[in-house]
Design goal:
single chain; 239 residues; 8-stranded antiparallel beta barrel; 13 strands
């Protein structure tokens, strides 16, 4: 019990010293890498038998398509330090890629007897996702503490994500394209997003530090699990 009381007294007495060395604000700018789960979609697959009544089966087997892409871009933030160990951060960034990924699945539909003519149809589904661009605007509390020369920090951020992804779906039936099913490009969504993470600042000058940070980024929509790494310079303003 005495140990915790002494520790609390020492911490309280050290706050004025910490406050003198804590900048009023920190401005960060740098590069980012985002491993992004682009989409989560289910494509029909397997073999289905349609009853002679012509009704489609109620259970359809599917295969999940959850591609991930590596995006690169920029990142920035401004942190107002309200206490030596606590601040409020506004965080923004943009990440991009020109890559694409695709998946193809096949479903064979057989008509039950009695059957006249072609009793089996093979449908092929192909979904292509490409050119993702992700913008984030997040804000929330940041907690920091010293570790030798470095300053470690952790934060919880919430806000919005603007996502633009080109998707193209094609369906062929027995080798022929299905009319009216092709190309749904450049859909854009505004989503709710959150980031949990932190990092470390290493001083390189009186008012400059080098930052390395990482976040688990999640959002609403069809893709929800992402990981982001950032690095760059922190400029300290005021004392």
């Amino acid at each position: 019990m005495r140990f915790f009381v002494c520790a609390a007294v020492v911490a309280a007495l050290s706050l004025p010293c910490l406050a003198q060395s804590t900048p009023k604000a920190e401005v960060f700018g740098g590069f980012s890498y985002l491993n992004y789960e682009v989409i989560s979609a289910n494509l029909p697959t397997g073999t289905q038998t349609v009853p002679s009544s012509g009704l489609l089966p109620t259970v359809v087997q599917t295969v999940n398509f959850t591609p991930r892409m590596n995006l690169f871009g920029w990142n920035g933030s401004v942190t107002a330090n309200l206490l030596p160990w606590f601040g409020f951060t506004t965080h923004f960034g943009g990440d991009y890629s020109n890559a694409s990924q695709s998946m193809t699945s096949t479903m064979t539909i057989t008509t039950g007897s009695p059957c006249i003519g072609n009793c089996s149809i093979t449908q092929t589904y192909k979904l292509v996702v490409s050119d993702p661009r992700i913008y984030t605007f997040l804000f929330g509390p940041q907690f920091s503490f010293p570790a030798g020369k470095m300053k470690l920090f952790t934060h919880f951020l919430a806000g919005g994500m603007n996502r633009g992804i080109t998707t193209t779906e094609t369906i062929t039936s027995n080798g022929s394209s299905v009319p009216g099913i092709a190309g749904q490009p450049a859909n854009t969504d505004n989503l709710f997003a959150m980031a949990f993470g932190g990092g470390a600042d290493y001083p390189v000058h009186k008012r400059l530090s080098w930052r390395v940070g990482a976040d688990y980024l999640t959002s609403t929509g069809t893709a929800q699990n992402h990981a982001r790494v950032v690095t760059g310079l922190v400029w300290k303003l005021g004392k």
